[in-house]
Amino acid sequence: MAPMIDIIDDDDAVRESTQALLETYGYDARQHPSAEDFLSHSGEKADCLLVDHHMPGMTGLDLLEHLHAKGDHTPALVITGRSDPTMEPRAARVGVKVLHKPVDADELIRWIEEVRNVKR
């Protein structure tokens, strides 16, 4: 069974292209247009989360802090197109890596595999 990746991003084009990319590398992927949408779907647990940080409502790091507080430590990567000096330390506190857009496809796959292997 292929690893399942949840893509949480408010940009439709980013979700679509990321899913297509992941599927070419043999992953299964699900899309969520917001953190709130992700939280409302309690289906199969993902092997990794790809989370945009800057989204309306709950940010990517808000979501990951919420999950960690509930004991959910699913491997995750935060992806952002905007720099914020508070983001890196905050991400480090919940144990996630921040990647800055644009992210090269091979780099993204390498980081997915790295965080999945570390959390096993």
Written overview of the protein:
The protein has 5 helices and 5 strands. The chain is of the alpha/beta class. The protein has a single domain (4-119), classed as Response regulator (Rossmann fold). Strands 2-1-3-4-5 form a 5-stranded parallel sheet, with helices on both faces. The longest helix is centred in the last third of the chain and has 15 residues, at 105-119. It is globular and about 35 Å long.
Highlighted features:
120 residues, alpha/beta, Rossmann fold, 5-stranded parallel β-sheet, 5 helices, 5 strands, 20% strand
Tally of separate domains:
1
At CATH's second level, what is the architecture?
Answer: 3-Layer(aba) Sandwich
Under CATH, the homologous superfamily reads Response regulator
Strand order of the largest sheet: 2-1-3-4-5
Low-confidence stretches: none
What Rg do the Cα atoms give?
13 Å
